[in-house]
């Protein structure tokens, strides 16, 4: 199988981003058709694989930049990982007062800070859900 993998990689190329093939169809990786117009796309297990990798990466970034977050319960930690997922770790790190309030266990204050942000104006449904999750410690 490794010979077939090598051959297909050489013939198709290995591309780390979506691109249009010579016929104009969206493709990724080693000639993987993802263009819906031609029936392409990802299978559920592939979506889960990508998501699991992204969650692991964002969790590691959060713990690297905010070591105190390891003391958070799963529900509140999920908010930090979710925010890093949405806006990148640097975007999350811009919430300095919110993060300080979370670190200090002032969850209601942190929730208020979250809702008083440009992020909350841009994605109000998500922000309300995540702020409530920080405040209550319960999945929303």
Q: Which spans have pLDDT < 50 for at least 5 consecutive residues?
A: none
Structural class comes to mainly alpha
Distance between the termini: 45 Å
H/E series: HEEEHHHHHH
The multimeric state of the shown protein is single chain
CATH architecture annotation of the largest domain: Orthogonal Bundle
For this structure, the CATH topology of the largest domain is Lysozyme
Task: Please give the domain count.
Answer: 2
According to DSSP, the number of beta strands is 3
Q: Tally the helices.
A: 7
Tell me, briefly, the overall form: elongated
Q: What CATH first level of the largest domain would be assigned?
A: Mainly Alpha
Q: Which sequence of strands runs across the widest sheet?
A: 1-2-3
- Provide mean pLDDT, rounded: 97
Report Rg: 20 Å
What fraction of the residues are assigned to beta strands by DSSP? 5-15%
Report the biggest beta sheet as strand number plus sense, adding barrel if it closes: 3 strands, antiparallel
Percent range for helical residues?
55-70%
